[in-house]
Amino acid sequence: MQQKMSENGAIPRQGKVLTVDTMNANVKKVDYAVRGPIVQRAVQIEKELKEGVKKPFDEVIKANIGDAHAMGQRPITFFRQVMALCTYPQLLDDNKFPEDAKNRARRILQSCGGNSIGAYTTSQGIDCVRQDVAKYIERRDGGIPSDPDNIYLTTGASDGIVTILKLLTAGEGLTRTGVMISIPQYPLYSASIAELGAVQINYYLNEEKCWSLDISELQRSLQAARKHCNPRVLCIINPGNPTGQVQSRQCIEDVIQFAAKENLFLMADEVYQDNVYAKGCEFHSFKKVLFEMGPEYSKKVELASFHSTSKCYMGECGFRGGYMEVINMDADVKAQLTKLVSVRLCPPAPGQALMDLVVNPPQPGEPSHQTFMQERTAVLSALAEKAKLTEQILNTVPGISCNPVQGAMYSFPRITLPERAISEAKAKGQAPDMFYCMKLLEETGICLVPGSGFGQREGTYHFRMTILPPTDKLKLMLNKLKDFHQRFTQQYS
Amino acid sequence: MGVRVSRGTMMSVLQIHRSEKDILQSRAAEIQREIQQGERKIFSEVLDLSSGDLHGGGIKPITFVRQVLAACSYPALLEDQSLPSDVRQRAEDLLRECAGGSVGSYSESSGMAKVRECVCEFISRRDGGVSSSPDNIFISTGSQTALMKLLTVLIRPEHSCRTGVLVPEPGYATFRLALQAQQAAVIPYQLCEDQGWTLQIQELRRALQSATHICTPAAIYICNPGNPTGHVQSRTSIEEVIRFAAEEKLFILADEVYQDCVFADEADFVSYKKVLSEMESPISSTVELASFHSASKGFMGECGLRGGYVELVNVDPAVQRYIRTLFSTRSCPPVPGQIAIQLMVDPPKPGDPSFPAFTEEVQSIRDVVCRNVRLIQEVCRELPGVRCQPLKAGFFVYPRLQIPPKAIKWAKEHQMKADMLYCMRLLEEEGLHVRPGCEYGQAEDTYHIRLFVGTRADTMEAALRRLKTFHTRFLEDFS
């Protein structure tokens, strides 16, 4: 334990304090495929291209990450005008800015210390923003009340998700908190569970039924998990990442009933709530469904739902704006949550301001309304078109099968790999779909994330590709992929 | 570990009790609301000298910084001829570093390459040429986030014997909370008030000794310049600490966010990295150091933008790879904060159109802070029972109060520390909000208050008037 102190002026010990053996073992289990080794290789290739190295392609297409602006999507004009006004209030005197933008900026600045977005905000987030978020939720959910005191602004949705997981992780050994996550899932969940030393409990989405959620599968997974941990949390991403499935209302009700019966805390990741494309699909918020199920559920089920400025039609990832709404949280636990968020002082004020605009956009009659609606509609309809296009083209490739991209920003097609490719990958110590994606990157410059980074059924292989590149580039990319797949299949058959 | 496992419970380690800071903060907000609603008070507003927030204190942001940020947010401003040309050029340069030319894109998880390069140049200049690599720089959502990531890696929750971290008293309260949240043991070491809040090696040894069989010490946290003390460590002292860390196998966490807030002429800030680099081998190449800086302090005061960074020195490459992965799970730090860091380390230079205004603004902030410090020290000298250590740096004055025995007794009967009693009454009776020393840890039977120095001159004058009035009355009431 305590090392003996050396004599004064003696030679210091050899070696480092912090090594792979002395560091927190949990951190070694953390993986985040979205920015993992394949992306590192992509960045290296970009450097090589810049240095003039000859390749079979002249650019790397980063279809690995849900970053709309990086792929050329334009920001919403109104949002950036308000952000500029908040940042440099001198512009409030500039008549090039519309009055509604100025009003929003003034309101936000008035709620900031010293009227500056450079002041610390309270750790739960700027009051008027939380009020606006609550009103947005009420409007969205058909009038079901939302209390600003239950709203916490966060540094992107990720911050909120990790905070709740941290809050709920307790126990040791058999009583250690188990967290149910969908397979496939967005790897923030698996990474955070690993970092916190919680227990990951997998429930498989049904690929044959368009990635739907079966309660029987939830039941199976829970039963098995109870033998070795204390399952306490159930995480759902809706619309789904990477799968894009949009849960039906019935399904959401079933999940809520399940959570109620099994005493599980529900975490509903709803960051893609505006990204719904398929006919017959509709976004239903977990909160709305919960409250429409009556007091037997609405007074009991503990729920945290998450939203962000990074996705939907905004694509403002770099601002790190987000919020979470907590419902039916135990008062003591909520006090702990409030304390926990105070440790990081406050979320970025620009992100908070941006969140305010997302939940309080230009209204009919306001000067910026028309342009705003045009821009918003253009973005969402382009995404819908690209979702369809992706599904169509991928399904023409023998050996690739793609479920309809009902929502979100990604396709997650299943790929059939020849046996020889699988064994060569395994011999290299690589997941077969990583092997495939690496080859794809080297030969075409297209950077995707292998399905192994998200989780998948044993013996199946996938990749996640964003639908974000501009339509023409997307078509080119899909056709290149098609060619590659056929070559690859031939090469390894 | 005493974990209750039942419905709705979680980790036991965070204390639920409301801290003194929480109590004062909510009471201050309540009083402010009462004033707004027209309830009569002797004072027309609460004066807030409690938190280290320049803009909150009424100081204006630096024009150049805000112009660049605005142009980055809304690139149509790049065509605006009323913005100085260097502003537009800088915004253009920064946007070129953003994917898709937008500050709304994710950046690399450790921060934009250009920002990290500029940080390295800054560090090198500051340290007289000691080299710095962008691969060792991680931009973060405020320096606190980076500090917490380092703690995550250092602290081993699965071990039956908790990891311990040496922490100064008085010291920044939020850091202790962070340690609790990470299930680390806090090993306090007392700073020496009589010597101007210096760090004594004997005291470090004593603290470490006291941790025997209680926890496994892995790191020492230092805040230099200090918060709340404002002490600036001498080169000798820094060397001693580094040797101590080398002998006792401790990772050094050097919180240097106040490095730009030095106002005493004879107090020069020298960085831990510089001192380390000038020591002999193998110390210079083995002692592990993480050094933190931020755009929240100094003359920038951009707390809300959440721009900070950590530089890792001598960290094992394999461990550093894990640290990189840890940063990657949160995507990236906020881009406005990254831009703030870039502007902080690469401000306008002589010859740039914005240079004169920039220089003037920075100077005026330094002037007002120096004047505030002088005024506070004068008042402290006037008031009976108030003693202030010479202030060299940082954002706060931390005078010691001689509290009358009757007041101490009253406070005890009401379950609070005497300096908390002082602060509560000061807030209620005069509408002045400051922090009590019990928040920061202090020697038994000593009492302090912490006052922020970064407010407008008129605010400070009004605050000090209120303090004088109150202090006299307080002493009378409890005589």
UniProtKB/TrEMBL annotation, chain A:
InterPro entries linked to this entry: ALAT1/2-like, Aminotransferase_I/II_large, PyrdxlP-dep_Trfase, PyrdxlP-dep_Trfase_major, PyrdxlP-dep_Trfase_small
One Gene Ontology CC term in the entry: cytoplasm
Broad class of enzyme this protein falls into: transferase
Occurrences of domain Aminotransferase class I/classII large (ranges): 81-473
Listed GO MF terms: L-alanine:2-oxoglutarate aminotransferase activity; pyridoxal phosphate binding
Reaction catalysed by this enzyme: L-alanine + 2-oxoglutarate = pyruvate + L-glutamate
Pathway connected to this protein: Amino-acid degradation; L-alanine degradation via transaminase pathway; pyruvate from L-alanine: step 1/1
Name under which the protein is recorded: alanine transaminase
Organism listed in the record: Danio rerio
Phylogenetic placement of the source organism: Eukaryota, Metazoa, Chordata, Craniata, Vertebrata
Automatic annotation (TrEMBL), chain B:
Keyword entries, A-Z: Aminotransferase, Transferase
Highest taxon above the source species: Eukaryota
Name the UniProt record assigns to this protein: Alanine aminotransferase 2 isoform X2
Source species of the chain: Danio rerio
